[in-house]
């Protein structure tokens, strides 16, 4: 049992606990991004193409904030989940592009 206990202690030494400060900052940033997106849509007198591009940009930033801080993808040891997510994004984009191409012809 002592070997198991020392292995757990060794893992805990390498993994630093961030504490709530970064989570609170990420939460506030996420709320701020959401408020900005709602305000842009509520303004109403802005070009719709610009709003669409802006909303996609805000959503992409929101995804990176969520993945980095809430899912801890910025930490070490998350290579396989990141590769899986990137492969999923690649497959989805490929399907969307091929569906558009198929519908176009």
Structure description:
It is built from four helices and no strands. 82% of the residues lie in helices and 0% in strands. It has helices at 2-14, 20-43, 48-70, 79-104. It has two domains: 2-74; 77-105. The model has no long low-confidence stretch (mean pLDDT 81). 0% of the residues are buried. With 105 residues, the protein is mainly α.
Average residue-wise pLDDT: 81
Give the overall shape, derived from the CA principal axes.
Answer: flat
- Report the helical percentage: over 70%
What is the helix/strand order?
Answer: HHHH
Radius of gyration: 20 Å
What fraction strand?
Answer: under 5%
> How far apart are the termini?
67 Å
Give a short account of the largest sheet: none
Number of domains: 2
Unreliable sequence segments? none
The structure class reads: mainly alpha
Query: Number of helical segments?
Result: 4
In a few lines, what is going on in this structure?
The protein has 105 residues and is mainly alpha-helical.
Throw out a few tags for this protein.
0% strand, mainly alpha, 82% helix, 2 domains, transmembrane, 4 helices
Chain-wise SSE layout:
Blueprint: H1 2-14, H2 20-43, H3 48-70, H4 79-104
Helix pairs in contact: 2-3
